[in-house]
TrEMBL record:
Keyword list, A-Z: Oxidoreductase
Organism taxonomic ancestry: Bacteria, Pseudomonadati, Bacteroidota, Flavobacteriia, Flavobacteriales
A Pfam family per the record: adh_short
Record-given protein name: SDR family oxidoreductase
UniProt cross-references to NCBIfam families, sorted A to Z: PRK06181.1
Length: 264
């Protein structure tokens, strides 16, 4: 993990799940962390659990408040004098049939998962260019590579992230700016419980596939290895990751396999 030593790493969605576990594991390395999410009290709890909490700063952030990103970037840079890696991990999921899902839910997923991530990433981009280095890490999903029923808004937002960051990688290769897209399969976090349903209310319960997914500490460890190798994309999960490769060979075959899986 020498890649992370002496670096300043900013993690969004750091109050729980993948973001929290990344913070715990990275705090054991000689680096500095900035933890962000909407819930400042939960961020403070994560900080207190970390090794070397003196090397950790907490900055509350709401991905739906796009106009606040420039000032938050200024604050983040002021904390430790720079940012080397931005891990865009914050976001929400969705579980509902298309025909029942209000347009407001579609809009909310795009506002938070896509535009919120883009707004923060664009706000820090001039600093990365001036610094002539920077590493964007974007936690999307396998649903950013192929789709699944009852996740239409989520799939749309995650697909959009791939389009945007692939373009950013091309435009700023000359500035030594790296982009790693992390595509999780099922990971045992609260993502399903917090997923929005057709009318915008949280689902409130865990689903079987998520419950049986990778343990979050295992996922975070694999994710950190992929980032350190500066991979363009990393697919991290169990058997579901093969959907990416099957789609390349036969989209129709993948369609039938997803239908037979009866994933919800």
């Amino acid at each position: 993990m020498t890649y992370y030593k002496h670096k300043v790493i900013w993690i969004t969605g750091a109050s729980s799940g993948i973001g929290k576990e990344l913070a715990l594991q990275l705090s054991e390395i000689n680096c500095k962390l900035i933890l962000s999410s909407r819930r400042e009290n939960e961020l403070q709890k994560v900080k207190d659990l970390c090794t070397n909490p003196n090397n950790i700063s907490v900055i509350p952030l709401d991905l739906a408040e796009h106009d606040s990103m420039a000032s938050l970037v200024d604050r983040a840079i002021a904390e430790f004098g720079k940012v080397d890696i931005l891990i865009n991990n914050g976001g929400i999921s969705q579980r509902s049939p298309i025909i029942e899902t209000t347009l407001e839910v579609d809009r909310q997923l795009m506002e938070v998962d896509y535009l919120g991530t883009v707004a923060l990433s664009k706000a820090i981009l001039p600093f990365f260019v001036k610094q002539q280095s920077g590493h964007y890490v974007v936690v999307t999903s396998l649903m950013g590579k192929f789709s699944s029923p009852f996740r239409s808004a989520y799939c749309g937002a995650k697909h959009a992230l791939h389009g945007f960051f692939d373009a950013l990688r091309l435009e700023h290769d000359k500035d030594n700016i790296k982009v790693t897209m992390i595509c999780p399969g099922f990971v045992n976090t609260n993502v399903a419980r917090n997923a929005l349903t057709a009318d915008g209310r949280p689902q409130g319960f865990q689903d079987e596939k998520t419950q049986n997914g990778l343990k979050v500490n295992t996922f975070a460890s694999r994710m950190l290895k992929a980032i350190s190798k500066r991979k363009f994309e990393a697919y991290i999960g169990k058997f579901e990751i093969f959907g990416v490769f099957i789609k390349r060979i036969s989209p129709r075959l993948l369609h039938y396999m997803v239908m037979r899986s009866k994933v919800r």
